[in-house]
């Protein structure tokens, strides 16, 4: 069932929700939480689809807040609330209300959302993109027990982790952390099988992926060993290697679908380690609404604790900066390209032979140039 309300109010939306439930033959709400999605028109479809899929596991009332402040002074002066109500099969296993706020009302979204929250039920706020610097201090975030962001959608995903650490409040979490649940579970299970001493770790994954950094910081905090971060072509996290005296414990996933667990003295095992979609990530986050202390410890650890290098380039020392000569002329463009794409984390040097060749060419050119006679 779909109901469109133009220039409406929160009380009229609540009345329409009650009428829709009566029409469908269900007077009781039967929902366990309220999920508030703060998004824009461009991301609304994907976010609502993920929320509807997650509602089959967690029946909830989903409130999608779309702010349309307007570009012209006349549009900004017009204050209006439009609502689209979805009940039944169109809304998964719950209710969905799409709130489009025009004009100055966009700056007071919490006043519209507050009357629509389910009574005596937890509130979760999710920003699929453009999350505030401090979610707990946001007017909508202040209404929630759980606040979900996604650092991977930021312009600087790895730099976003520092902002998440600075503004962390118990109840905050990020989907970059949720994406590594499978990796953390498999690595913990591997270490439970035998008693070994870990001397170091290597985490491999694509650049600008905050999940790779969070996994490395988690290993650094839990194992108390140095962790090296290797930049690869992805997709996502590609491998984790735990150094031991008997050999490496390796969890490798080159294709983003199936992983291979290799342990010294044991046969290799294939493990399910598929990259999950957003609906699965949101469903996992809704299973627990208490503060995640492990995430808090990991995100508060500075990223520069990880030593970083590009795959195929030797690391020169700690500090998160690579200073190395390119291994070959054929690989030189890749190293230089990485340095240009990420200048604060990669510093590439040209091979010594290239510089020597330039000096030799300059000397030959100087000898070949004709000398000027005096008086000319």
Topology:
Blueprint: E1 2-5, H1 10-24, E2 33-39, H2 41-54, E3 60-68, H3 73-77, E4 80-87, E5 95-102, H4 109-113, E6 123-126, E7 146-149, H5 157-166, E8 172-174, H6 175-178, H7 181-192, E9 200-206, H8 210-223, E10 227-232, E11 237-243, E12 249-252, E13 258-262, E14 269-272, H9 278-285, H10 293-299, E15 307-310, E16 322-325, H11 332-341, E17 346-349, H12 352-368
Parallel strand pairs: 2-3, 2-6, 3-5, 6-7, 7-8, 9-10, 10-15, 16-17
Antiparallel strand pairs: 1-4, 4-5, 9-11, 11-12, 12-13, 13-14
Helix pairs in contact: 2-9, 8-10
Key attributes of the depicted protein:
376 residues; alpha/beta; seven-stranded mixed β-sheet; 12 helices; 17 strands
Textual characterization of the structure:
- The protein is of the alpha/beta class.
- 32% of the residues lie in helices and 24% in strands.
- It contains twelve helices and 17 strands.
- Strands 1-4-5-3-2-6-7-8 form an eight-stranded mixed β-sheet, sandwiched between helices.
- Strand 12 and strand 13 form a beta hairpin.
- It is elongated, with a radius of gyration of 27 Å.
- The model is unreliable at 314-376 (pLDDT under 50).
């Amino acid at each position: 069932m779909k109901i469109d309300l133009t220039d409406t109010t929160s009380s009229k939306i609540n009345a329409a929700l009650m009428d829709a439930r009566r029409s469908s033959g269900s007077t009781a709400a039967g929902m366990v939480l309220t999920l508030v999605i703060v998004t824009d028109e461009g991301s609304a479809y994907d976010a609502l689809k993920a929320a509807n899929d997650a509602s089959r596991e967690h029946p909830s009332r989903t409130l999608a807040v779309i702010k349309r402040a307007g570009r012209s002074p006349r549009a900004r002066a017009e204050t209006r609330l439009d609502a689209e109500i979805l009940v039944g099969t169109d809304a998964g296993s719950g209710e969905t209300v799409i709130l489009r706020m025009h004009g100055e009302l966009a700056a007071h979204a919490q006043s519209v959302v507050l009357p629509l929250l389910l009574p005596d039920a937890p509130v979760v706020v999710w920003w699929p993109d453009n999350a505030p610097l401090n979610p707990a201090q946001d007017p909508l975030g202040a209404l929630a027990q759980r606040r979900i962001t996604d650092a991977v959608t930021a312009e600087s995903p790895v730099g976003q982790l520092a902002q998440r650490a600075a503004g962390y409040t118990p109840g905050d979490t990020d989907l970059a952390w949720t994406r590594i649940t499978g990796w953390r579970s498999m690595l913990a299970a591997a270490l439970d099988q035998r008693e070994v001493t870990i001397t170091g770790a290597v985490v491999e994954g694509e650049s600008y992926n905050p999940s790779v950094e969070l996994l490395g910081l988690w290993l650094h905090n839990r194992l108390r060993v140095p962790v090296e971060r290797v930049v690869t072509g992805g997709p996502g996290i590609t491998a984790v290697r735990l150094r031991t005296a008997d050999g490496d414990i390796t969890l490798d996933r080159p294709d983003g679908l199936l992983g291979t667990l290799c342990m010294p003295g044991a046969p290799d095992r294939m493990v399910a380690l598929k990259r999950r979609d957003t609906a699965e990530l949101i469903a996992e986050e809704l299973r627990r609404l208490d503060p995640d202390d492990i995430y808090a410890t990991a995100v508060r650890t500075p990223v520069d604790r990880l030593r970083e290098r590009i795959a195929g380039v030797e690391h020169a020392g700690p500090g998160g900066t690579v200073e190395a000569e390119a291994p070959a002329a054929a690989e030189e463009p890749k190293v230089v390209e990485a340095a240009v794409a990420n200048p604060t984390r990669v510093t590439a040097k040209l091979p010594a032979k290239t510089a020597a060749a330039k000096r030799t060419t300059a000397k030959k050119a100087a000898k070949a140039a004709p000398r000027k006679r005096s008086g000319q």
